Amino acid sequence: MKNEEIKILLSKMTLEEKIGQLTQIRTSYYYNSNTSATGTVSKLKFTKEQKWMIGTVLGKLDAKMMFEIQKEYLDNNRLGIPLLFMHDIIHGFKTIFPIPLALSCSWDEELIEKTARVAAREGSSSGYQATFSPMVDIVRDPRWGRVIESFGEDTLLNSIFGAAMVRGYQNGDLKDPDTLISCVKHFAAYGAAEGGRDYNTVDISECRLRNEYFPPYYEAIKAGAKSIMSSFNVLNGIPATANTWLLRKILREEWGYEGVVISDWGAVKELIPHGTAENSIDAAKLSLKAGIDIEMATTAYFEALPELCKDKSMEKLLDDAVERILLLKNECGLFEDPYRGSSYEKEKETLLCSDFRKVAREAASKSAVLLKNSDVLPLERSKNVILIGPYASNSSILGPWSLDGDLNDVITIEQGLINKNIRLEGVETTCFNEISKEKSEEIIEKAKRADVIVLALGEEEEKSGEAGCVSNITLPEAQIKLLRCMKKLNKPLIVLLINGRPLDLTNVIEEADAVLECWFPGTEGGNAIADILYGDYNPSGKLAMSFPRGVGQIPVYYNNLATGRPKELLKNEKRYKSQYLDVPNEPLFPFGYGLGYSKFKYDNLNISKKELSKKERISCSVNVTNIGKYTGIETVQLYMRDKVADISRPVKQLIKYKQIIINPNETKTVEFTIDEKDLRYWNGENQYKSDEGLFEFTLGKDSSEGTSFEIRLIN
After folding, report:
1. Same domain for 525 and 663?
2. Looking at residue 35, what is its pLDDT?
3. Has residue 688 been placed in a domain?
4. Catalytic residue among 264, 678, 691, 702
5. Which residues belong to any copy of the Fibronectin type III-like domain (predicted)?
6. Rounded to 5 degrees, what are φ and ψ at 508?
7. 313, 347, 381: which is the final residue of a domain?
8. Which of 65, 267, 391, 619 could form a disulfide with 456 if both were Cys (CB 3.0 to 4.6 A apart)?
9. Averaged over 285-313, what is the pLDDT?
10. How many distinct helices (H) and strands (E) make up the chain?
11. Is 686's pLDDT higher than 90?
12. DSSP for 539-580?
């Protein structure tokens, strides 16, 4: 259908049909499946006529269900406007990849795009046309359960990886039936919710929004994202759902965004408990005026817009929203083929195929971060190993938002070790929060017979994800006691961590000889973990989010602003400086940190010149030598600090990085170019600019160490 025909179609629609296009409900309203409507949706009531006017649906289905729902819908829709099927495909569909926070630790843009491409091929084969992904919220509070969905604390990584996922889902042409519409979320700054508590308030300056929080959304839109979801939170006093400055001035006027905006679940009517709307009429008016095109899971638009649209200005807003939705349906080819080539045969052939499992194994391997290794890894195959802990044989390693993953398809850690044909003395699966005295004694006796003890510890899946916020980020006491019991046996002790957030690992690091952060690794997690343990994969992951020493440090992140009394510059001052009295300021593990089985030496730093004009470029390079025994991947990171600016700037800011593969005894030169655009920021006076003067750069392995040099920007 040509876009001009969309306007003709719009002119034929009744007011009620238009409102229907702005409403999203669950697929369970159309299909008597095992998926039951929950929360706000269970309270909805539709007339039979309105049911066939709805524009979009969300919820679990398969190709057969989609076909039946769409066919019945089109048989009953007066104008033949097809439904758009949306779903939470967050880190894989049937083939589950590591959680996004884990994927970001790979620092591998191409890999992340590949995982989204796989997810799109699988999800589209099962009848979906859109996914609520990626989430590009900057996160700095590990108490927040939804850190699992983010790419971490850094603006650059969120920008790069968010755009990569958009490209992977949409693949440049939504007419291609193997693609999914990407919905970027949560606009804006949901990751800064106070106290790390879901649905909570965000109060953050425009300066920080523009310099730190906005860029990832903007880059995802530049990558072609066709839809964006507003966030649950209040932003500087106004809920995002009703925030005209955010959704119209920034998103549409400044950024030129022309796509669809959708609310989060029930968020339109949540304006009432927020205290900014008295009733559904207020909520609908505020949301439509702000720019919400699709109301998810509530019916304020149906209830209020018939009366509100007697005002011609409101009717114009309604028509604009409907047109955007129809254009999106047209762009993904629904008017030509409302089923988008989906079929049972295609679905069966596509889901969880061997090629996709290989991608999942690669992703899980590259996402794991080696936090400690006292020369006990990699393991020798001749050693007799015992595997103990709540995740020893537990298949629940997919992580939150793996809605269509099947635990029967998961390679557990036990199975991964068995697949290696190593000497496995035994496997003892424990509870998460309690281990009886009898069970502990039994485990101790069995562990005595092993050469190496491997503990598979971590959080239960329900402790992460949406509504999975916690105030305590340590492992359960029962697991710490188990760790200490095993330590007393004086055998090599390796801890594998399965979790969805940075944890307080101070107790774990003290006891373990090696610690491997595996996150929720997905379908192929067990194979990937075994690959790392036995040296078939050299761990290369780097943290995308700092690990605090305790909750008292939160938020702790590498790119904080400078203070007037920085601790590092006041070494002779004992008290009156910015510090904690009981712990260091620095996190336990900093952003960008990660060990491997290789050791890399950096030397021969070279800068082409030390003055940069606004029309020039400067190159800097460093030699990186693998002085270890294993071929490895090194992520060379370049950080920048603006020494004097109009506003206080971060003490360090990642501006570029490169990954290289280096063989033992090999040296590679890594080169970066720097130009004036790399130095720009928003200065609080509606200007993106750079400052003449000194800039400090650091080249290194992580955010806490490296070789520094200075460049002066001149006019």
Report:
1. no
2. 39
3. yes
4. 264
5. 634-703
6. -70, -45
7. 347
8. 391
9. 98
10. 21, 26
11. no
12. -----SSPBPSSGGG-S--TTPBP-SSBGGG-TT-SSSSB--
Average pLDDT of every residue of the chain: 96
282 and 137 within one domain = yes
Task: Please list, in sequence order, all residues whose beta carbon lies within 8 angstroms of the beta carbon of residue 219, skipping any fewer than 6 positions away.
Answer: 159, 160, 162, 163
- What pLDDT digit, counting tens, does each position of 489-532 carry? 999 999 999 999 999 999 999 999 999 999 999 999 999 999 99
- Higher confidence at residue 31 or residue 657? 657
Q: pLDDT tens-digit profile of 182-225?
A: 999 999 999 999 999 999 999 999 999 999 999 999 999 999 99
Task: Round to whole Å and give the CA distance between 622 and 601.
Answer: 10
Q: Per residue, what are the HEC states of 604-638? A: EEEECCCEEECCCEEEEEEEEEECCCCCEEEEEEE
Three-class HEC string of 373-437: ECCCCCCCCCCEEEEEECCCCCCCCCCCCCCCCCHHHCCCHHHHHHHCCCEEEEEEECCCCCCCH
- Radius of gyration in angstroms for the set of CA atoms belonging to the chain, rounded to a whole number: 26
**What does the alpha-carbon distance between residue 540 and residue 662 come to, in Å, rounded to a whole number?**
12
Tokens of 65: 């269900």
Choose one of 477, 499, 533: the last residue of a domain: 533
Bridge partners (DSSP) of residue 59 are: none
Residue 540 lies in a domain: no
Query: How many structural domains does the chain have?
Result: 3
Q: Domain of 194?
A: 3-347
Task: Indicate the pairing of strand 688-689 with strand 384-389.
Answer: unpaired
- Confidence category of residue 36, pLDDT binned at 50, 70, 90: very low
Q: What is the mean pLDDT of residues 565-592?
A: 96
Catalytic, 264? Answer yes
In the block, which residue shows the tokens 């020494």?
643
In this model, does residue 97 exceed pLDDT 90?
yes
* Distance, C-alpha 681 to centroid of its chain: 24
pLDDT at 366 over 90: yes
Q: Identify the CATH number of the domain in which residue 410 sits.
A: 3.40.50.1700
Beta bridge partners of 547: 589
Edge-to-edge order in the sheet of strand 667-675 = 600-607, 617-626, 667-675
Find tokens 């193997």 and name the residue. 178
Handedness of CA 199, 203, 207, 212 (dihedral sign): negative
Q: How many CB atoms are closer than 10 A to CB 673?
A: 12
Shared domain for 341 and 415, answered yes or no, is no
User: How many Cβ atoms from other residues are within 10 Å of residue 49's Cβ?
Assistant: 12
The pLDDT value given to residue 57 = 98
The reply to whether 565 falls in a domain is no
Dist CA 206 CA 132 (whole Å): 26
What CATH code is carried by the domain that includes residue 650? Answer: 2.60.40.10
Same domain assignment for residues 209 and 290: yes
Is the residue at 71 inside a domain?
yes
Q: Are both 192 and 240 inside the same structural domain?
A: yes
Residue type, 12: K
Beta strands 617-626 and 600-607, pairing class = antiparallel
Q: State the SS3 of 334-374.
A: CCCCCCCCCCHHHHHHHCCCHHHHHHHHHHHHHHCEEEEEC
Say if residue 336 is in the same domain as residue 390.
no
Are residues 249 and 298 located together in one domain of the fold? yes
Residue 105 to residue 101: CA distance in whole angstroms: 7
Q: What is the pLDDT of residue 32?
A: 58
